[in-house]
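anyone seen this seq b4? input:
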Amino acid sequence: MPEIEQAHEHEVDETTAMWKFILENGHRDSPSSYLPGSPRCRMCLIPIGGIGGMLMKATRRRIPSRKNPNVCNY
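predicted toks r here
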């Protein structure tokens, strides 16, 4: 018998829609993605290291995520 997917009580439709959009399209940050620096966030391509990473940390508080260092903390 196939299982029917049911929404959890703690899920909020807006939050689910936001995460679906981010996971399908990424959370690209166009102006900041042109800054020099390596490594870069795998989702939005902002620099999270080098000179551009220092600038992003100082101005936007964007640093590598503590759970996954390949993406930013956005």
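The mean pLDDT is 79. The radius of gyration is 16 Å. kinda curious what u guys think
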